[in-house]
Write a structure and sequence with these properties.
mainly alpha; Growth Hormone, Chain: A; cell membrane; MFS_trans_sf; single chain; globular; disordered C terminus; transport
Length: 509
């Protein structure tokens, strides 16, 4: 009898860990998708000739829609079941990815990315919420969350490597077709290995709250994008005003609703809200770095996609190692001490680039330092966020965590990437031999300058790319100083907000 019970226990444990492996497939895909497109931008720019604004929207349309819908989808999953929502999202994501791979215009690609964001929003909160259903024991769940968070960081870091390998041998559409072989195992094995989550039938979704959350995020993101490409004007101020007003109305509505879309009471826990904010900022650092590093390596240093991706492998290895190694450390070191130390790695990474320039060696070292900090922060912060919520609100807490992640992705490309673009456009000194059309293309983006140079004689092409590369490097230096300052600010926020009350159990570390 004892042997039978032990065999059943081992079988159940194996089922849980196999289920975790299946859950990691959409996590890996969605996070790879956040950074893989950066490597494909030169090829996409050559094929579709996007404007500077369209180039940014190609990356951010996905994260923008994803962030706007995550809270809604997290609450929907609480009501209908996260396994059901995960499977629907996986099927939709795969279908739309295939259609996007064959886009013929920049606008088609942007629309495709937006629809991918709709289905991606169904995936991410469900994966984290299902961990509570699969792993009921605290210690097992802590390890599972660490694996989930490490996969999150590794996915973002692997984007350049995956993109480099695919683009070395295939056309740019291959980065979207990747979704099919990754999601098919989930669609087959998910119903067999994953239990349905606990449902919260407290009420329907509130469409007004959904609209308010999307307008708030959309207004702020659009304002930043327009300011980066066109300068600060009335449109920027109007967009910020609309976004801020919608955000204020959203918060007021959530506090008054009996069944809110986002449970704002969770933010009364300082550790929870501090972890969410730090999670957002750390992902913005990582994605912003990848946005300009991938273009710099391929266009300015003239590295092949594969060679450029291999240059970032040390950082990807650090993300994997540190993401797992931090678990026992987080049980012994207080949050308000550990997180600032990890943020310091990110600050040093940007300070290195700002003070020493953007050579290949500096970029490789900076990416490794950045991944040490971000990889560990993602693991620790998500464990805190998930542990702070009651089981019935796992989807809501997961959605808040994922919203912070995706907003960080949007802000990384919008703010940091937008600053690089703005400096590039302001600092570029164009050669006089360019026609008006060539000058317009070259002044919009680094990819545009590279496209123009490909049609010029050797000496003229070299002169144009020297000017364009110098302007782009100047933008990298500016953004690195800004990011260093933001990292210092994040350290102060973490030091003050993550202090646990003396009566709080140590396991929340």
């Amino acid at each position: 009898m004892a042997l039978t019970i032990e065999a059943e226990r081992r079988k159940a444990a194996s089922r849980r860990w196999f289920g975790l492996g299946v859950l990691m497939l959409p996590v890996l895909l969605v996070t790879v998708d956040n950074t893989v497109l950066g490597f494909a931008l030169p090829k996409i720019a050559e094929a579709l000739r996007p404007t500077a604004s369209q180039q940014l929207w190609m990356i951010d349309a996905y994260s923008f829609v994803l962030a706007g819908l995550l809270v809604s989808m997290g609450s929907l999953g609480d009501r209908v079941g996260h396994r059901k929502l995960l499977l629907i999202g996986s099927l939709g994501f795969a279908v739309v990815s295939v259609l996007t791979a064959y886009s013929e215009t920049a606008m088609q690609l942007i629309v495709g990315r937006a629809f991918m964001g709709v289905f991606g929003a169904m995936l991410m909160p469900s994966t984290l919420a299902l961990l509570r259903s699969v792993f009921e024991e605290r210690e097992e769940r802590r390890l599972a969350v660490a694996i989930w968070a490490t996969t999150l960081t590794v996915g973002s870091a692997l984007g350049p490597l995956v993109g480099g390998v695919l683009l070395q041998f295939f056309d740019w559409g291959a980065i979207f077709l990747l979704a099919v072989p990754v999601l098919i195992p989930l669609l087959i094995l998910g119903p067999l290995l994953l239990p349905e989550s606990e449902r919260d039938a407290s009420g329907p979704l509130d469409p007004i709250s959904i609209l308010q959350s999307m307008v708030a995020l959309g207004g702020i993101v659009y304002g930043i994008k327009h300011g980066a490409s066109e300068g600060v004007d009335g449109v920027v101020l109007g967009a910020f005003l609309v976004g801020a007003l919608a955000g204020w109305m959203f918060v007021r509505r959530q506090l008054r609703l009996a069944v809110p879309l986002m449970d704002m009471t969770l933010f009364r826990n300082g550790t929870f809200s501090g972890s969410v904010l730090i999670n957002l900022m750390s992902l913005a650092f990582l994605v912003g770095f990848v946005f300009y590093a991938t273009q710099f390596l391929q266009i300015v240093l003239e590295m092949s996609p594969l060679s450029a991706s291999l240059a970032l492998v040390p950082g990807q290895i650090m993300a994997i190692v540190v993401g797992m190694a931090v678990v026992p450390v987080a049980q012994r070191v207080p949050l308000h001490v550990l997180i600032p130390i990890l943020l310091a790695f990110a600050g040093v990474a940007f300070l290195l680039v700002a003070s020493m320039g953007s050579s290949l060696g500096v970029m490789v070292a900076a990416f490794a330092l950045l991944n040490i900090g971000v990889g560990a922060i993602t693991t620790v912060s998500n464990d805190v966020i998930l542990s702070a919520a009651p089981p019935a609100k796992a989807g809501a807490a997961s959605a808040i965590s994922e919203t912070a992640y995706e907003v960080g992705v949007v802000l990384g490309t919008t703010v940091l990437g937008g600053l690089v673009t703005a400096y590039y456009r302001a600092g570029l000194q164009l050669p006089t031999f360019l026609s008006d059309i060539q000058a317009t293309l070259a002044s919009e983006t680094l990819s545009g300058a590279h496209y123009v140079a490909s049609g010029l004689p050797g000496d003229q092409a070299q002169q144009l790319m020297q000017q364009a590369g110098g302007a782009f490097e100047g933008g990298i230096a500016l953004v690195s100083w800004v990011a260093t300052g933001l990292a210092l600010m994040a350290i102060l926020i973490a030091w003050h907000s993550l202090r646990l009350p003396k009566a709080q159990p140590a396991e929340c570390h």
